[in-house]
Design goal:
alpha/beta, three-stranded antiparallel β-sheet, single chain
Length: 150
Amino acid sequence: MNEIWLEVREENGAARKLYANNGFETVAHRAGFYADGAAAIVMRKNLTESERGLLPARYRMPVILVDDPSDVPGSPVSGRVVTVSDYLKLSYAAKGRIVVNLARSYEPLTRGYYASLLAAARGERGYPGYPCSPHRHNFSGQRYDLWRNR
């Protein structure tokens, strides 16, 4: 979910001002929208990255962590690919969000290890979770193929 849409009575100037001050823009006019015949103003707000993180978990895509974007052999079936370094720099949490950590290493003191720790501390559902072993994600010697069976 990248945007929020709403309708507000045209004559409700206080509400329209409140929405405008919070980033909503007017995009349309709907005559006779309300049962009493009053018109509505349609407003939209494009959500920032941090605002999207505040949405309930059911509206968010999983985050797939990689060390290098070249580790991704194409587009995943579902989810957003983020580098481990960028994930560690995020200043907000998204409680309940799924975080799939495909870092090259989960050894202590590595970024992959700290990404799993941070996901747990933020209340996100990290895979592999903390505490993680270096081989927990890798039962057959290869990483999960999230891009298979498209």
